[in-house]
Amino acid sequence: MKSPVVKRSIVIAGHKTSVSLEDQFWDALKEIAANRRSTLSEIVASIDSGRNQGNLSSAIRLYVLAHYRNPPTAREGSEHNDRGIAARSTVA
Fold first, then answer.
1. Which candidate in 8, 50, 73, 74 could, as Cys together with 87 as Cys, close a disulfide (CB 3.0–4.6 Å)?
2. Span 39-70, pLDDT tens digits
3. Model's pTM, two decimal places?
4. Distance of alpha carbon 64 from alpha carbon 58, whole angstroms
5. CA-to-CA distance for 26 and 66, rounded, in angstroms?
6. Nearest 5°: phi and psi at 71?
């Protein structure tokens, strides 16, 4: 049976790391990056720099969830807003 979690390597701030996420989260993250005309690495680096605790995979999941829960008008053209969300989206 194939695991629903996919481990991928990504470069963040010049260093390579592995992140394990379900395909749906990878797809959503790619969609967010494309809509922002940004790279996946840039989005993940922003999430990584804004988190206070917890692991990166959890922080990414919370970021994607927050992105889709917020109305588009609150997000339009505001990478700063999503950075704030990533910073507040911490795992205990």
1. 50
2. 999 999 999 999 988 899 999 999 999 999 98
3. 0.73
4. 10
5. 15
6. -65, 145
